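Title: Comparing notes on inverse folding

I've been comparing how different people in this forum approach sequence design from structure. To keep things fair, I'm posting one structure and asking everyone to reply with a full sequence. Here's the target:
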């Protein structure tokens, strides 16, 4: 039977359509740790990030993307599209008091069957892989193999050495790595950024080439301790010698030039506890400039290894059909380990020596060095915004977001508001899965990415955040926020971010009606998701210290009891011996 010309044409045109339906896009989600708003090169940062910058050139850069100011909550929202309290991650475990753990939003444990982006895509035929930091909830309780990931190689901790299992906090004896749910030991030659990408490449090479994949690469870079080989550190010799005040001003200028913030933006003052660069002596200036060299070098190294993964996908002919998302879990880290004063400082430094940590200037950033950038450089990383990680300021919440992928145009900077809960529906939408579900709070960003709309949130659409008493609500260009002591005053304030993203002018009194309306909306949000109101004296950093003491006491109480009994026995017999000597 002969085919007619019309029939033949219909079959020929149907074949490409069928092929297109059979090849949904791959998804590569890349998460940096503690990278500030302007840390990527494309955002005006000092680190060389050519691979991230190339993605930004062919895709979109978001100037108003908001996450949580803590890693665990932001990662929980990133995986589920839901508020962190709704999935039992009201904070990170280290900052929780025993009382807070009694509430549903703070249990740090996920129930079986909790839907994630991995499980949703897995149900649609996607192969799902993760390599890198997980850090969602209590160690070992919510491992990714239980929530839709086919293969997983993860650090289940807030952080640790980039070379081995040494923890960076006295709370822990070791850092725990797991593969497919089973504990594993890192190889001797391990370095985090390299090893994380190597394992993801292994997973992809072992996968079915006929099926799409969801790949989550979660770097330790640039979480404390920041560590990288000397050659990367030395790429930035002399780069940071002008000091933090000068470099904050420079970053503000770049942000305005790049269209990331309006020309009216003013820098908030540094925290009262910050040091003036000129008050440091030459040795101190060299030390802190070198710390920032390590920070930039570690970010460059992560970008290099990301480039290896992208090149691998390109060599396999898969990159052109891969959606790539690159972002950060929260703003930059301001605190360090080993810089405390008093009794706590002595105890922590003793713990550091026992675990092989040092802060030697000569080897800063190398294996066994506890390197961090401090609050002054964190204020540069978060510039032109106020403060940093752990706070509900723009510096803690607003981070870079780069998205590029098949059929997405090069849009440059997008200034429509976006939130971490929006990434799950965005990935689902681009993968051809319905992005709307009753348990997903976020909205798909696809209409912004393809140029259909300039924003997905209207002037009346509000989104709230809360961790450890740090609270914020966004509506249109307006924001209300509350920052507890010691970095804030514990009071609510209101800002117009269209003119003042530096949060320098409080408008709560001038726009009292709007302020009260937004505060009521925040209170409704907090009640809906189960936010626990913290005590006025609650300080998350002090709570970390108390939890460390409590944990060490529980671990060592038999030794402490024996030591106490031995001391009492010695005192008793010494007292009797002295009495006997003093008898007439």
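Reply #1:
Here's my take.
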């Amino acid at each position: 039977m002969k085919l007619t010309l019309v029939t033949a044409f219909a079959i020929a045109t149907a074949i490409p359509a069928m092929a297109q339906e059979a090849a949904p896009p791959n998804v590569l989600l890349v998460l940096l740790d503690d990278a500030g708003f302007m840390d990527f090169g494309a955002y005006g940062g000092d680190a060389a990030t050519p691979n991230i910058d190339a993605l930004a050139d062919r895709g979109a850069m978001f100037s108003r993307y908001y996450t949580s100011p803590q890693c665990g909550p932001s990662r929980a929202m990133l995986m589920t599209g839901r508020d962190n309290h709704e999935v039992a991650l009201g904070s990170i475990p280290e900052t929780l008091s025993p009382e807070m753990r009694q509430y549903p939003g703070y249990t740090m444990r996920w129930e079986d069957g909790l839907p994630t982006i991995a499980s949703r895509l897995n149900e649609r035929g996607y192969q799902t892989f993760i390599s890198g930091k997980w850090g969602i909830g209590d160690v070992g309780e919510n491992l990714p193999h239980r929530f839709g990931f086919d293969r997983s190689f993860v650090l289940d901790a807030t952080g640790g050495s980039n070379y081995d299992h040494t923890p960076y906090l006295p709370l822990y004896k070791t850092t725990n790595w797991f593969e497919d749910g089973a504990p594993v030991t890192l190889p001797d030659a391990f370095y985090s950024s390299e090893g994380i990408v190597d394992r993801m490449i292994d997973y992809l090479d072992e996968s079915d080439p006929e099926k799409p994949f969801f790949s989550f690469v979660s770097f330790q870079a640039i979480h404390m301790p920041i560590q990288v080989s000397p050659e990367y550190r030395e790429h930035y010799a002399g780069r940071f010698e002008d000091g933090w005040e000068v470099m904050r001003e420079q970053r503000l200028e770049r942000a305005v030039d790049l269209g990331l913030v309006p020309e009216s933006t003013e820098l908030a003052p540094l925290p009262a506890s910050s040091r003036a660069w000129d008050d440091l002596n030459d040795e101190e200036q060299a030390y802190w400039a070198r710390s920032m060299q390590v920070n930039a070098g570690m970010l460059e190294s992560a970008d290099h290894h990301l480039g290896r993964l992208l090149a691998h996908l390109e060599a396999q002919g898969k990159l052109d059909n891969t959606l790539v998302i690159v972002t950060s879990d929260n703003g930059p880290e301001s605190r360090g380990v080993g810089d405390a004063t008093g009794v706590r400082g002595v105890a922590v430094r003793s713990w550091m020596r026992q675990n092989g940590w040092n802060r030697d200037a000569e080897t800063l950033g190398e294996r066994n060095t506890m390197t961090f950038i401090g609050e002054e450089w964190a204020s540069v990383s978060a510039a032109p915004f106020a403060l940093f990680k752990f706070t509900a300021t723009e510096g803690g919440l607003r981070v870079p977001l780069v998205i590029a992928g098949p059929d997405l145009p090069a849009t440059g900077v997008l200034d429509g508001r976006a939130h971490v809960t929006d990434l799950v529906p965005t990935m689902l939408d681009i993968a051809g899965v319905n992005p709307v579900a009753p348990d997903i709070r976020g909205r798909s960003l696809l209409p912004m990415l393809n140029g259909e709309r300039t924003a997905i949130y209207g002037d009346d659409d509000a989104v709230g955040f809360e961790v450890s008493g740090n609270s914020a609500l966004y509506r249109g260009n307006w924001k209300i926020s509350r920052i507890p002591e010691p970095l804030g005053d514990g009071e609510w304030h209101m800002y117009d971010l269209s003119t003042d993203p530096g949060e320098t002018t409080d408008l709560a009194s001038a726009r009292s009606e709007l302020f009260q309306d937004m505060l009521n909306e925040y209170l409704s949000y907090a009640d809906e998701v189960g936010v626990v109101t913290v005590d006025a004296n609650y300080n998350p950093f002090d709570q970390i210290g108390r939890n460390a003491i409590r944990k060490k006491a529980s671990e060592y109480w038999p030794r402490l009891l024996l030591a106490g009994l031995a001391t009492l026995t010695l005192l008793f017999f010494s007292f009797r011996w002295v009495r006997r000597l003093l008898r007439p």
